[in-house]
Amino acid sequence: MKKDKKGNLTEQAVIEGLKKHFPEPWIDLKFSNPFQLLVATILAAQATDKKVNEVTAVFFKKYPDPESIAKAPLEQIENDIKQINFYRRKAKLLKECCEAIVKEFNGKIPDNIDDLTKLPGVGRKTASVILVNAFNKPAIVVDTHVKRVSQRLGITESNNPDRIEKDLAEFFSKENWIFISKAMVLFGRYICKAKNPKCKECALLDICPYDKKNL
């Protein structure tokens, strides 16, 4: 693992390190199409992926498409996701989002960030998750894990998601955006944890400038 001549991180070094841990990165949310990932991602805010997967395993059988959610009574949707944190707000967002998809996009999930972020409940992070994982299109996902990893590696000094996204876009070439958006989430979740990061196991240890390593 090497830095450049100035002792800085290089894109290649970070990519190589991430690939040692996650050569074929995945997303923990279970889905079969863009619609299902959209629903799962909205439900996943401040909830565990495990709990979301438990709920959606039943939910998707009852609601196979945006039309089915758009037509359903709000109280029914609430009842079907009540195991999820903030289920009332999320049920409202799901219904409004699916109503917009039916009305504005003929029931199909948009495949670009501008249209996705027009939907109720869909910010840049959710839109990027959908683009990367459902459409295999380059985007940069900035969640709490990516934020932490980016800061510890010194790729960004910002706490602002938009600024972090720009810093990552400058550091990584576009051809690597899909990979890093998947791998950095997993790396932050399972290796570079908020508490007790697994620094001894980390393939990026030699190039990481983080001054509070868990060694």
UniProtKB/TrEMBL annotation:
Keyword DNA damage in record: yes
Record-linked InterPro entries: DNA_glycosylase, Endonuclease-III-like_CS2, Endouclease-III_FeS-bd_BS, HhH-GPD_domain, HhH_base_excis_C, HhH_motif, Nth
Annotated keywords: 4Fe-4S, DNA damage, DNA repair, DNA-binding, Endonuclease, Glycosidase, Hydrolase, Iron, Iron-sulfur, Lyase, Metal-binding, Nuclease
Sites where the protein binds [4Fe-4S] cluster: 192, 199, 202, 208
Domain of life from the UniProt record: Bacteria
Key word Metal-binding present: yes
GO BP terms: base-excision repair, AP site formation
Reactions catalysed: 2'-deoxyribonucleotide-(2'-deoxyribose 5'-phosphate)-2'-deoxyribonucleotide-DNA = a 3'-end 2'-deoxyribonucleotide-(2,3-dehydro-2,3-deoxyribose 5'-phosphate)-DNA + a 5'-end 5'-phospho-2'-deoxyribonucleoside-DNA + H(+)
Obligatory cofactor(s): [4Fe-4S] cluster
Enzyme Commission (EC) number: 4.2.99.18
Domain HhH-GPD: 43-190
Gene3D superfamilies: Helix-hairpin-Helix base-excision DNA repair enzymes (C-terminal), Hypothetical protein, domain 2
Residues making up the signal peptide according to the UniProt record: none
Molecular function in Gene Ontology: 4 iron, 4 sulfur cluster binding; class I DNA-(apurinic or apyrimidinic site) endonuclease activity; DNA binding; DNA N-glycosylase activity; metal ion binding
PROSITE patterns in UniProt: ENDONUCLEASE_III_1, ENDONUCLEASE_III_2
Family annotation (SUPFAM superfamilies): DNA-glycosylase
Cofactor binding: number and manner: Binds 1 [4Fe-4S] cluster.
Record-linked Pfam families: HHH, HhH-GPD
Family: Belongs to the Nth/MutY family.
Family annotation (PANTHER family): A/G-SPECIFIC ADENINE GLYCOSYLASE/ENDONUCLEASE III, ENDONUCLEASE III
Function: DNA repair enzyme that has both DNA N-glycosylase activity and AP-lyase activity. The DNA N-glycosylase activity releases various damaged pyrimidines from DNA by cleaving the N-glycosidic bond, leaving an AP (apurinic/apyrimidinic) site. The AP-lyase activity cleaves the phosphodiester bond 3' to the AP site by a beta-elimination, leaving a 3'-terminal unsaturated sugar and a product with a terminal 5'-phosphate.
Protein name: Endonuclease III
